[in-house]
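User: I'm putting together notes for a lab meeting next week and I want to include a structural view of one of the chains we've been expressing. I don't have a solved structure, so I'd like a prediction I can at least talk through. The sequence is below, exactly as it appears in our construct file.
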Amino acid sequence: MKQILSILFILLVTNTSGQQLRILSENSSEPIANVAIFNTSRERAAITDSNGYTGTLAFLKGDTLVFQHPSYNTVIYPYEEIRNKQVVRLSKRNILFDEFVISATKSRESKQILPYKVSVLREKNLVNNPAQTAADILLETGNIAIQKTQAGGGSPILRGFEANKILLVADGVRMNNAIYRSGHLQNAITIDHAILERTEIIFGPSSLIYGSDALGGVIHYYTKDPELSESEKIYFSGSAYTQYSTANTGKVGHIDFNAGGKKIGSLTSVTYKDFENIRIGSNRNLFYGDWGKTLHYVKPGNDGRDSMYVNQNELIQRNTAYQQFDLLQKFKYAQSEFVDWILNIQYSTSSDIDRLDNLNDYDRDGILKYAEYYYGPQNRLLASVKNVNRNDNPFFTNATSIFAYQRINEDRISRKFKSNDRLHQLETVNVLSLNIDFLKVWDVNKKLNYGYDLIYNHVGSGAFYEHLSTSEIRPAQTRYPSGGSNTYSSSIYASYKKIFSDKLVLNGGLRYNFSHLNSVFNNPALEFDTTRFSNGALTGSLSLVYHPGPAWQINGILSSGYRNPNVDDYGKIRAKDDYIIIPNPDIKPEYTYNAETGVSRVIEGFLRMDIVGYYTLITNAIVRTDYTLNGQDSMMYDGDIYRVSANYNANLGHIYGASVNVISDFYNNIVLKGSINYTRGRNLTDDVPLGHIPPVFGRVSITYDYKKFRFDSFVHYNGWKFADSFSPYGEDNEEEATMFGYPSWWTLNMHTSYRINEYITAQFAIENILDQFYKPFASGVSAPGRNFTLTLRTHF
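Assistant: Thanks for the context. Below is the predicted structure for the 796-residue chain, given as structure tokens.
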């Protein structure tokens, strides 16, 4: 903590040191954000905000101005020609070029010089997508699969890595904490997608820049920032929308408003969601039988007098309804021309969320096992202070520091059928973090990114049984060490980029991480009471970008990644299906060694194709295996006998695959896109399949966008995942599949929007038009059937 305060003090000390244009799209008259405007000597520049405004221009009489944006044709005007204009219009390119990316190096970079595969969901993508959660919006990339254990969930899968092996980031703050589990996670839905400005996804190991957990990649959510006024008047703006969906009788309401002075601005956002039970598709393969249906449900009674009922409408998945409330408040203070401060407060909470996968489990007599099984309200609080210092000096050109506090509540409540004992397992995680990232630019061809981070987690775990009749409280087995757990991590990194020419870019870097973990179990059933260990990890990356010609780009990457074991890896006690996972204090960090190559080809005015192939070797892979406790391979837990298993380090595993993305802007207002993804993985030590490996999947779409009207039709498709390719230790939820595996499926979908006037837009969507029944890979909940969605949006 002293280190954090010292660094913050240093940053505080270093920080105390006309005409406005609007840029609009020629074909739609929509404002264009992030248009770079500069004179030919690049001595003076401006950039447009989200409403297309430049702010006050500071160009001189003799300047020639360049207007540049990756998705629009570049135009050049003498300043004298436009100095009295209020609007400049840009025309879209015939072929869609890539724009800037922030997340890959934590500084603004052109995708043309990045070796990584990066997908960007811009604000326009997000606004036109009627998705209900921040997990569902990721499907638009065509390169991410989403697993859902329950309706209030959404666990992204990147290149065969999932859960705590991919890194979630919100506004520069890592969301991964000490109890992010290795199975499936629902935490992505605690991000409010209604206030997002953009989302960036980096595919492949990203430990050099982001540290532990980024084995499969990074998903970085960027929320909007307050906008300041360019005049003495207060600048007001805002937006709102309401949405209704038929498949789950979903109601969503959102409003945000901005108030900005010249130095201080405020942004407030509120979103409420109310979803009822999901209606599944009615068109199903005959061989499925009753697979994926909710045939029975339990109506809890007083004193454990539960009753089991037949579900009269098998198309309705009972126990899938929930509500969610999200609040965001940001304040921005422009200390000077070069220094900004942003206070960022985010809060997300939900109703209880039923675990459908457990509520659908039957015992040997055909009776449902559980009367109740649900997550308590999912609460996430984030409070951060961000400082941006653009005061160029010998040490940095740009410095960004973020000090953050997070508090996460994750509770599980369960009760067996006709039991009087309700089990409460209560987890609270408190996280403190400090990230400091520096960028030093010597000239346009040489730049250095370097930084430092500190992360501290404290995990408190409690459990008790509540007797329904007497209200008696008695102790129960906690999920995590009951004496508390603490984790500490500290890292430094540096990455150097050299642009040798228009054809060749080299980038290399190193990161060193030190971590310390300790837990107190207070569990007499275990052979140990405490665990304490420290680890150091050195990782690196070397990459090349080569342009043999203006139409080609060839990328090559050699990199390593690591993931420190967290409390969920080494300290969890959890029962599911026939297995119970118990603690193993001998877990070590897992490492990956990655080789990747990519080729991009542009046919001017027609097509862009990106092909990426990768191979990842995993050492000390943390996977599940059969285990013993006190010499026994089974144990009693919560009234049932389970086989004992635990996480351990397999010597070797590997994951390899490829992806192809095609985009064609072959006509002025029509864009075609397509993707396909292939992944394979195996635990080489035990010669069994690795978990979390999705089948072949992808997306194909056609979009028409002209003036006020937009039409988007697309197909999501997913191949078979056969039972013989499941992990034998339960990660793939084989009990939720058919006897042969997860069947292939595809859906036909349509999104439309019409801009009624400058302030109001109406959107209509039909998803799963053919009302197909399907269940995504490894999911406990079946997907919605035909879904009509109506959205009304306004901005002011």
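A couple of points you could mention at the meeting. The chain is about 5% helix and 55% strand. Residues 7-17 have pLDDT under 50 and may be disordered.

User: Perfect, that's what I needed.
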